[in-house]
Amino acid sequence: MSVLQLQAALLTHGFDPGPLDGALGPRTRAAIRAFQTAAGLQPDGVAGPLTLGALGLATDEPLWLAEARRLEGLTERPGKSSNPAILDWAERLDLNYASDDVPWCGLFVGHCIAAALPDEPLPQGLLSARTWMKFGRVSEPGLGAVLVFWRGSRAGWRGHVGFCVGADVEAFHVLGGNQGDRVCVARLSKGRLLGARWPLSGGEPPSRAVAFTGLAGTPLSRNEA
Which Pfam families match (predicted)? Predict the structure, then answer.
């Protein structure tokens, strides 16, 4: 289920989400709250399972993952310029972030979570990938879970963070930012996983890991910065 499908369903039910642009912006969240109020649901602006069910939508994918998929293909800009979309994420999160030369995997995850769950507490220092080990609650590495990996060495400070979209015997399939300087899906070795996390306001975390072999055999990602 995509944000665009959510917007279309809201419009069908008589609640204007603004432009049908696939972005989970303020007008779409306001339409969600209005629909929830009319449907006798808690008007929190979060399209959880009850809200989606009332709209006649069913999905296994959380909305933060839909936002991540919408951004797939976005890239850094070479040289001294920066992609304004990446800088806008930082501005919306009130972060001091001057250039997309600074690793932005944590910024990408923070943007997607905040867009879908505006009241979800984000970790302090979210630009540091390993800080995401303090986010939300422990989860299985299921669809949409935030996966945190080490880079360089397990005992070091460098890391990477992204969303789980699949797995094979050897690796997790991670939809993340700053993977080859862009938003894409990459295979990261299971041996590098530090942990999986799930938003506190994201409903029940998955009870089992995902299994998907569509990327099996493609090279492993070695260094995501």
Answer: PG_binding_1
